[in-house]
Amino acid sequence: MYRSLTADAQLATxxxxxxxxxxxxxxxxxxxxxAKATNGAAQARLxxxxxxxxxxxxxxxxxxxxxxxxxxxxxxxxxxxPRSAAAIAKATGVVNAAVKTVNTRKVQVERASGVxxxxxxxxxxxxxxxxTAIAGWKAASVxxxxxxxxxxxxxxxxxxxxxxxxxxxxxVTQIRPAxxxxxTAQVYGVTVxxxxxxxxxxxxxxxxxxxxxxxxxxxxxxxxxxELRTINGCPDVWTAPASSCRxxxxxxxxxxxxxxxxxxxxSGGRTLTSKSPAxxxxxxxxxxxxxxxxxxxxxxxxxxxx
Length: 306
What we know:
- The chain is 64% helix and 9% strand.
- By secondary structure, it is of the alpha+beta class.
- Strands 3, 4, 5, 6 and 7 form a 5-stranded antiparallel β-sheet that branches. A two-stranded antiparallel ribbon has the order 1-2.
- It starts with 7 loop residues before the first helix and ends with a strand.
């Protein structure tokens, strides 16, 4: 039952998860911004490269047309009678220049086409990167929302305390009818029910780490409970209320000591009082381990407070 229904550990874990998710979200936001910038630049380069490629092809087409026209002019000059060597030479020069321009324009088109293809590849890569970054950003946002919902779903302290009390009563009801001594365990010399042995051990260890030594008496038989009722001067062993005894003592068959679910705690070999350092420590921490104090008895701690 060690911290079985306390929200501290769960909330701490969830808050760590939320902090990590928020850090991841911030990273993803940065990645999206960077991806958008990269994609924008890549798309701009592609647009410029596409325009340059179109211009180069238009210039090539114009050069091809000019060469065609120049060849027609040369053919016409060659047919003129009488034949003019000067006119033919001039037309031939125009043709040669036009053909040279065509070849230059072809090289420019090839270069512009390569640049456009590279820009298109880079643009596709940038678009994929942006899509991936946005998906990561959305996933991080969902993780934050889900963690926040889980944090909100962790019960408040009063609700958890009520659940713990109900659970403790159920445990007692289930265990009492079938209880045997075999259901107990020893914890540093204190006999308790094995179901609370781990929690009690942790409580003793943690108290010791804080400089508080605790021990005590746990399980006792029904016969011993009868003896204590007699010793403590109860008006009637079987019917008188515990408060009627000189020292409050439960009616036999009703004490949680009889199933190892209660411990009369001592510190330094002395019974606790409300002014004991050990009592102050237990008041602060015992509920974390599933133990509650019976207000009338500073020394009596059980899973129900009874």
